[in-house]
Amino acid sequence: MTSFDALLPRPVRVRPGPGRCTVASVVTATDPASVALDPARLPHPGAYRLSITPDGVRGVAADAAGAFHACQTVRQLLGPDAFRAADIHRGPWTLPCGEIEDHPRFGWRGVLLDVARHFLPKAAVLRFLDLMAAHKLNVLHLHLTDDQGWRVEVPAYPRLTEVGAWRAGSWTGRRPDGDPTHDGRPHGGFYSTDDLREIVAHARARHVTVVPEIDVPGHSQAAIAAYPELGVTGDPVPVWHAWGVSEHVLTPSESTVDFYRTVLDHVADVFDSPVVCLGGDEVPTTQWHASPAVQQRAADLGLDSVDALHGWFVGALAGHLATRGRRALGWDEVAGALPPDAIVASWRGEAAGVAAALAGHDVVMCPEQHVYLDHRQSDDPDEPIPVGYRRTLADVYGYEPIPAALPATAHDRVLGAQAQLWSEHLDSPRGLDYAAFPRLAAFAEVVWSPRAGRDPAEFLDRVATHHLPRLDALGVEYRPLSGPHPWQRRPGVPGRVRADR
Ligand code: TNX
């Protein structure tokens, strides 16, 4: 029998009462239409209240998202079987009586899915949205383009997906005695416009915003493979199969910027998100420095150096997004070049986020030392492809999105935080489940629940007792709390471990 102690993320306030309430079915108990909207009484976006008595369930919400959150809470209170699609007609279903008052701590409760390094089939994206919604997460940042793949069909430029979506091998399956750069196993895939519209609609129905990312002017080798004239040399290059940062970056010509204006027009047509990410991270400028044409371009634009073309490029496209009524989001490298209303994603630690917030930007905190869920979960030698900083479930639970160095006057610049699932090593929905869960449950509580009252021991116990059975019912292949599971081992595949901080 479930109690309010089972809820994850933990609500703002609970007052358990006596008895239980019997409900006819999971479907009727979790129908948002049974939740009254009363924004005057609940001014906090996404807020809801539940009152459960033996006579029934009454819900009040600030808005449609709040009504949806109320239903997610009721679903958890019904018990893990409420997450089994086949069990919805099995009863009787009962709920613990009492009152719940709840609202999110942050408005941006994000997850980045890198569908560029390894393609994630559409069905897996839809399922991931269901899992996000069950955890009250509300922003899916879709990293759609990179050196290793271009995943969004653009009608004006068919080669982006005909060529750019496919590569000759990947990093994941390579053998210690084989080619060090790839495994010779072709990989690829892309989303059609209809697929993306379906993903957006599925997300919208779950109160999740899908923020698309078109990464420029680095991380662009797949686009250059499709259209070599987008590159600096004009020479043909393959879609990249290695992991790292490719030297093949976009050339900052007017025609390349125009190409991307057309791409972004299409993206703005397909995605309803008010925010579009332009990337801007990790841009090697070696090719620019070596090119007289690029040097001339920098001079013509009145820039001090070719390095300044990095910010200029992203700024030009941010300006274009503004003409389409969209706000730009950029990785912290380009913070200085973004328009004032742009959002900065602080990934290289917290300092960049603090600086951007003090400069007047809204920020999303996603420091790689804390919330990169592609990074290893322990130092166990059996941990699948051990990369990055070690971050355990308890570590993620201990993350605090408001940087200690940020003055209180700027706290409201922190829109929230974002967990990141880069996929250099995550080549299937199963691998993704393993990296994401249960750490994403810890992250969900970090961004939803009040900071006060966090108790790591209680949380780990709640995960083990109440949340893993829910994930089991949902068919999530999470990493066991006891340690890495042998089926996820990749013997011999070397990782890149970083000194823990
Ligand atoms: C850094 S976060 C990257 C990604 C990699 C990731 C691997 C960011 C803006 N850039 O391109 O996939 O590290 O953890």
Describe this structure in words.
The structure is a single chain. By secondary structure, the protein is α/β, with parallel strands linked by helices. 51% of the residues are buried. The chain has helices spanning 26-29, 64-78, 122-134, 159-162, 193-205, 221-226, 254-270, 286-290, 292-300, 309-323, 351-358, 368-371, 393-397, 429-436, 439-448, 456-474, and strands at 13-23, 35-37, 48-53, 56-61, 93-102, 108-114, 139-143, 145-146, 149-150, 166-167, 187-188, 209-216, 275-279, 327-331, 343-346, 362-365, 414-421. The chain is 31% helix and 18% strand. The strands form 4 sheets. Strands 6-7-12-13-14-15-16-17 form an 8-stranded parallel β-barrel, surrounded by 6 helices. It has a 5-stranded mixed sheet with strand order 1-5-3-4-2. The radius of gyration is 23 Å and the shape is globular. Strand 15 (343-346), helix 11 and strand 16 (362-365) form a beta-alpha-beta unit. It is built from 16 helices and 17 strands. The two termini are 41 Å apart.
